[in-house]
Design brief:
7-stranded mixed beta sheet, 11 helices, alpha/beta
Length: 272
């Protein structure tokens, strides 16, 4: 097996899917996932990457990129790593947008920009904007937008700033994957996830992790036009509470969509 020693190093360190990780690293260095051998300089690069992985650093940070909805998304320390479950949020929004044109779309808590860019890629005539409070994350969002030649408007601001929100009007869609983990869930995170920014994970001081849903819905509902869509990614235990929240703010046609493991993952509602 090519690079079997590196696979053994990761396995001995308790890293799952060691063979997959090594092949991804090999491809990053050589351009070939099944490279028969590494030159001395490449071997040194590989050793450095393997040692970082042994310390629990996420593979995505080591590679500096990850795939999301068919797009190459650059990531690194300080930005949330795109996850497959978030693609369900994109699918849901795109399904709602079918047959519509000239839409205005706003992505709150955009992070790497993966949601906004995936939507822009599939809705080329849409006006897509993205907001995040982390300048570090937005550095990646801008890089990703430039790399894919996708024109989105990026704002560095706090999504919980009422005065900032007042400048936005008549949006057809507001989409968000906000922080939603509880304090207990933060304590139980896997080592790899602990490397990701807590600001993108912890859903406020509430015991149920719904702080951002409550604040965003209250602050941004007036930016959505009548009949427009509010779409959230949620933690799998939060569907009932978020659905009730949308209902209390005059959203109807509320739907809950499940992820690949049949867990509640997305809640949407239309403004009346």
């Amino acid at each position: 097996m090519v690079n079997s020693e590196f696979v053994r190093m990761l396995e001995d360190a308790g890293i799952p899917d060691a063979d997959f990780d090594v092949r991804c690293m090999t491809e990053q260095i050589t351009g070939n996932r099944f490279a028969p051998e590494l030159h001395p300089e490449q071997r040194n690069q590989m050793l450095d990457m393997v040692q970082r992985r042994m310390q629990g650093e996420p593979l995505q940070y080591i590679l500096g990129e990850w795939e999301f909805y068919g797009l190459r998304i650059f990531v690194g320390k300080g930005v949330l790593i795109p996850r497959p479950d978030t693609e369900i949020l994109v699918d849901t929004v795109l399904d709602w947008c079918k047959g519509k044109s000239g839409l205005k779309v706003l992505d709150l808590c955009t992070g790497s920009g993966c949601i906004a860019l995936a939507l822009k890629k599939h809705l080329p005539d849409a006006d897509v904007s993205a907001v995040d409070t982390s300048e570090t994350a937005l550095t990646y969002a801008r890089k990703n937008a430039e790399y894919h030649h996708l024109d989105i408007e990026i704002h560095h601001a706090d999504v919980l700033d009422k005065h900032f929100a007042k400048q936005f009007h008549d949006y057809d869609v507001i989409v968000s994957n906000p922080p939603y983990l509880t304090g207990q869930e933060m304590q139980e995170l896997q080592t790899e996830v602990r490397h990701e920014p807590a600001i993108a994970l912890l859903g406020g001081s509430d015991e149920d992790g719904t702080y951002f849903y409550r604040k965003i819905t209250s602050i941004w509902k007036d930016a959505i036009k009548t009949g427009g869509l509010l779409a959230y990614e949620i933690g799998w235990k939060q569907a009932e509470r978020v659905s009730e929240l949308l209902n209390s703010h005059a959203f109807r046609q509320i739907q809950v969509i499940q992820d690949y493991e049949q867990r509640d993952r997305v809640v949407t509602g239309e403004k009346i």
